[in-house]
Amino acid sequence: MSDVAIDDPKFSAFVQGKSKPVVDPAVRRKALRRRLFMAFGAVLFLAGGGAGTRWWITSQRYVSTDDAYVAADSADVTPQVSGTIGAVPVTDTMRIKRGQVLVRLDPSDAQLALEQAAANYGQAVRQVRQNFANADEAAAQIAGKSSDVERASLDYQRRVALMQQGAIAAQDLSNAKNTLETARSALVAARETLAAQQALVRGTDVEHNPQVLQAKAAVDTARLNLSRTVIRAPFDGVVAQKTAQIGERVDVGQVLMTVVPVNQAYVNANFKEGQLTRVRKGQTVTLTSDLYGSGVPFRGRVEGLSGGTGSAFAVIPAQNATGNWIKVVQRLPVRVALDSRELEQHPLRVGLSMKATIDVAQ
Hints:
Helix 3 runs antiparallel to helix 5 (210-227). The two termini are 87 Å apart. The protein is α+β, with helices and mostly antiparallel strands. It has 6 helices and 14 strands. The protein has helices at 9-16, 25-61, 108-165, 170-201, 210-227, 340-345; strands at residues 62-71, 75-77, 83-87, 95-96, 101-105, 230-232, 237-240, 249-250, 257-260, 266-272, 284-289, 293-305, 331-338, 353-359.
């Protein structure tokens, strides 16, 4: 029999009469490892099942895309009259209010044009008043010429009677007849003059005469052009792409700067065509921007879908009817309106990237 150490656990247990089977530590570790793997597998199964369930529910209710960008209906500021820039009181990135002065043109030419138009208007008023006076004078001439004709006619009739009695010479009768014809011709001419003068003033007064109205329109145009030498902001926004410089000569339609209405920004979200089956106008949209991160969500609503894909409106659209063809999933822009109050708290800029998620279950 081999020697057994006094402090051997097996020997101690045997001496005390309490001997039990001893489990090998390697076996114990193997069992523990097996139980841990089973627990880990169960956790993975539950996590995978939960994730799959969540994905299924989410995919059924929401569609999302990160191909979305901020846009706004910006306005190009252009002069409506030609002139030389005298002042530019704004700079790029400056926030402006509606009606704020953006550019001032030199008003000298416009002021002179207004003064000239005003002078022409005064001249036109005086001319029309003279036309009314001429018409009254022509009417008075008619009365005088009619009296001359009546007098010449009576004189001619008396001379005809005297000629029958042989009391006057034939020359006197001929002279009386010529006088009557001359008086009649003068009456006709006076009537024609009256008709011509009345044609200039008939149916109007001085203020509503076409000649005066035309001159007044020229004054209004000159005054409007003078006011247009001061260019103002069409709405609240931010100045961008300013090119206007003091002393520069500008023409009508030349772009001086752009005003971006950041408080009226919206989002163009480009969804795949297969995602748009249940997208409808008015559905709720949750958006996040790369500028503020997921901690600042924006709430929006679907305003509508574009009338065509980006490739359809391209300068050179795809010609799939010729050559080799590879199907490419198309994207359709969806316009999303944003909450103006959220835009005031967290302003966005045109072109910023966004992530949009539409709740299609509504």
